Hints:
There is one protein chain. It is built from 1 helix and no strands. The protein is an all-alpha fold. It has a domain at 3-116.
Amino acid sequence: xxxxxxxxxxxxxxxAYLFVRMAGVFARLxxxxxxxxxxxxxxxxxxxxxxxxxxxxxxxxxEMMKTAVGATKGAERTxxxxxSAVTKPVRKLTxxxxxxxxxVATLRARRAADAVLPMAPLPPPPPTPGQAFDASSAPPPxxxxxxxxxxxxxxxxxxxxxxxxxxxxxxxxRHDSPY
Length: 179
């Protein structure tokens, strides 16, 4: 036997020992995997049951949300209908009230104007054919000044030798201002 045979024998024994040790590791690994599988499978079954329950509740919530959305849309349509049914008459009443306010303001303004400027009396009715005019039945003239006031007096002539007075500015027909 030479050295190469000894090395081959030592290598074979080492590899056999290694394979025996690896077999032990794989056996322990198989046992561990079996234990983990035995523990994880029930947990996964419980998780699946929980997920199924959650999905069922989500379906119920989804149905409730659909119902709530439908009810909200129905309520919105009802509110719009009631709102338009209320606002249209209110708008008409507001317009009527504004018109009545303007009418009262106009009536008050006319009464105030009539109080300041009394109306001239109506002329007497025309005589009927065959009836003579009677001056005593004529209404009296309206109260007030008997005649129009005289126009203002012309300015006095300037003194002799002095400059002429400035001319009064002429008012433009388009403006009230003399400037």
